[in-house]
Structures are given as structure tokens and as C-alpha cells.
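Notes from the 1:1 (GR / supervisor)

We went over the backlog. Supervisor wanted to see one worked example end to end before approving the batch request, so GR pasted a single chain during the call. The sequence is below; no edits were made to it. Supervisor asked that the structure be written out right there so they could see what the output format looks like.
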Amino acid sequence: MKLPITDQFLWDLYNLIEGIKDLQPTLSIQPITMKKAVCPDLYELRRIYEKKQRRKDFSKLVSYLKKKGWIKIKELQEKKALILTPKGKEKILKVRNKLLLSLPRNKRKDGKWIMVAFDIPEKKKIIRNYFREKLIELGFQNFQKSIWTSPFDVLKEIQEIIQNLGIEKNVKIFLIEETEI
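Structure output shown during the call:
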């Protein structure tokens, strides 16, 4: 899945901060070109200009992300650091959900759908929101306010999440079959 440059940058920044993946620059060895061999000064000038242009583009990107409120720039030990804001973390969750939804999933072999209906009280709002995020990650779609459906074979995963969150009394799982009238 191709992400917009802003989403990709935020995702990479998040991964870097969280230490999820190494963002080491890839080293590429390129053979010398005829232009570089014949006009090395012109080649060097072009390389410098392209580097400045990339810096300018990066500066615009950072400025845009700051303006949107997704990052902050902070002085840390005489150096500037990029910090994700809470609004930026929300954006990252949306990007993550987009990526997770694009993953291929296996549909149930019996053709039935899993339906999850829940009524989690307001005092457990954080758990309720987390549960919704997990439903989205597993490929569920919102059918009605607290009713979610999925054609995918994720019954074991959803049962495990419900058990781990301790919301068994608040959630019902159904296997449903579509019929023609």
C-alpha cells in the first residue's frame, strides 16, 4: 500500500521513536557515469543543488507536520528533536489501521460471518475504545453503533482479546449466515 509522504514520515518517525524498526540509510553503490567522468565539477554542482533541494523539501514537510499539530520541535542537549504530539499519535493509529486493513486475510471457509455485539459501560471507556481499535485491526466493519461484523476467520483472536480485557459479560459473539429472502 502506498502511503502519502506525510503519513509515511509520521510512521517512520513513530517507528524510530518506539524502536520498532531500524531506519538505517540504505547504502547504494552506483557505477560512475560518463557525465561524472567527463565533467566532475558540473556533476558535483548538480549533486550539491539536489541535496539542498531535498533539504528544502524536508524542511517544508516538517513545517507542514508542525502546522497540522502532528509534531513538535524541541531543543534537547543543544540539538533539535522531533517529538510526536498526541494528535500525531492519533494520526499514526489511523495510518497503522490503514496498513493493517490492507493486509490479506483469510475468509471463513463456511461462508459465515462473525458478528460482535457489545455494551461496555461508560466507566470503561478506555477499554471500549481499545476494543474498537482491535476490531478494526482484525478486519471488522461497523454495522451499527456497537455491532461489528467480519467475514474473516478471526474467532480465536477476538475471543482472546475479550478474555484478556475481562469484558466477557459485556460482549456477545455470533456466527451469522446470509440468506436470500
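Supervisor's comment: The first strand starts at residue 71 and ends at 76.
Batch request approved.
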